[in-house]
Structures are given as C-alpha cells and as structure tokens.
Amino acid sequence: MKFLFPILLSAILMGCGEASAETESTREANETTGETSSLLTVQIIGFDSIAGFARLVVFDSEDGFPRDAEQSVYRASEPVESDTVTFTIESLGEGTFAITVYHDQDGDGQLDMKFYGPPSEKVGTSNDARGRMGPPSFEDASFVLGSEPLEMIITL
Fold it and tell me: Could you tell me the pTM of the whole model?
C-alpha cells in the first residue's frame, strides 16, 4: 500500500504541462459565475537539481485528490531555473483547496518511478502533508483561500 501512492500520483501529474488552457478555462468560469478571484502564491522548495519542470495540480474537493488531474481545478508547470519555483495563481475563487506538486527532472511530463515502487522524482503537497501507507488525505493537505492573498511554501 505504501508504494501505491507514487503510482497513483504519477497518473494525475502526467497532464500538468497544460497550464494555459486550465488557467483560461478557470478564469472564464469565474467571470461567468461572477466569483471573485483570490491571489495564491505557492513557492516550491527542496529540488535535487536545477533542471526540468515543477508541476502543480490544485483540487477543490477530495474527489480525485491526489489521483485524478481531470478532477482538478488548476494545473501549471514552470521550468526549474533556481532552487525555488514560484507559482502565482489569480484564477481561483474563494474556497477550500489542496495542492500536489512534483519535480519532473527529465521534463518528460511524467512522475518517474523506481523499479520497486517509490518515485525517483520528488513530490509534495500543500501543508507538507504526508500520508501513512499511501497518499495524504485531502483534509490533511487542504487550506482555505479567502479574499486576502495567501502565500505558502511546499517542500518536496
């Protein structure tokens, strides 16, 4: 069971490179429904190397977290050009969210796995939540985004 989390996480993170489409669709949805956007700044730290991409997925419910990127509300990818990568997200409305990230060192868009199960690329979640015998729960990784800007740090 302990090694099942990395395999499931790799499935959700494979589509992270398509940030612009996700950002635009979320922004359009907010404009249509009249929701106000809140500013969220996420710093990712703990990279093993300065190479590849940082991939980020945001969920607004436990549905799909952290396994199914299709149920996420936002996906983004940034090149790793220093020991910290920062994502600035303006398109989320107020609510409860959880984030999962990984360091795609080789830039292939997939979470690489070791032969015996765990990932060979680093992963992390909001609140630096860690699961026991599997992935962390949405509850452990969740945070509330209100009308005030929010900054967080996620350690890989």
Answer: 0.77
Instruction: Dump strand ranges (E) for 4-64.
Output: 38-45, 53-59
Sequence ranges of the domains in the chain = 4-155
Q: Which tens digits make up the pLDDT trace of 44-76? A: 999 989 999 999 999 999 999 987 778 999 999
Contact 19, 27 (CB under 8 A): no
Distance of alpha carbon 75 from alpha carbon 14, whole angstroms: 10
Please, what CATH class does the domain formed by 4-155 belong to? mainly beta
Distances 1 to 81, 102, 132 between C-alpha atoms, Å = 34, 20, 9
Does the CA dihedral 71-74-79-84 come out positive or negative? Answer: negative
d(CA 106, CA 97): 28
